[in-house]
What we know:
The chain is mainly α. The chain has helices spanning about 10, 15-30, 40-50, 70-85, 95-105, 130-145, 150-160, 175-195, 200-210, 220-240, 250-255, 265-280, 290-310; strands spanning about 60, 115.
Amino acid sequence: MATEEIKPKTLVYLEAPREFLKETEKVVCLMFPQFNFSLIRRVFEDIEKLFGGNYPGYRGCNTVYHDLNHTMHCFLLMARLMHGAFISGIIFREKYVELGLISALMHDTGYIQSVEDITGTGGKYTLVHIERSVEFMEKYFYKNGFSLGDYIFCRDCLKCTGINVKITGIQFESQEHEILGKMLGTADLMGQMADRQYLEKLTYLYKEFREGGLSIFDNELDLLKATPDFWEFIKQRFVTEYGNVDRYLRDHFRVRWGIDRDWDRQAIERNIKCLKFILKYHEADYRRYLSSEGMQEIMSEIRKFEGSEGTE
Length: 312
């Protein structure tokens, strides 16, 4: 049983990048108490600079959905998944843990524009952001002395974040590598959907889709209406493509925090439940309820609604 005070904010709703780094390091140390974080910290600092507009040659992040906070969620979730698997008897080499976490930090760098790219936002790269992320990573690895093997390992992990990618089509060097690729794909999806600002940020995702030429939704409300079905699709994808690696989160939370449930999945289910309620009862003024404050109102309404149903 963990001795630290358990609060939802501590478990899922971290905010500052350094909070994510601190918790990630704690999780990794549960597997490798003497783990050397020097390389991960260096990459972490450079990613902070990149998204903040302080990395040479780049403008900084101007996509509100695929922002630094999402990268941080993915980074931490990657560590949680590895730790849960470790508890279940899957042993990773320290080098692979290091590269898995670096892959998480690199996975959305393709949304960042160069200083010469002054039109629009990084959202225009929605359909090609994975390829651009790989390109940025290749340049970064070459400049910073990573090996070709390191690059190939992380490149194939990044490929796993494609929403329609077939994992069987990726040539992994080992089963360990494949598991970590599946974990990154899982962490990417769960990280964004467990965010407490997820519903509000969906309106920005629509703008990124529109700018990127992904015209499957007529407006942001259409995207919101499609999101519950998207979650059902993702749950199936966890089974069919990602090998159910999300199941390891429950083991992580049990050992790290002494609670026998997957807190990240619970956060997603809460978001989807609130969204369904908003669409059913407040579609006319849905935007009012997408913020954190609006979500509090919705949760209160849901509790009252469920309570009244129970008394009938």
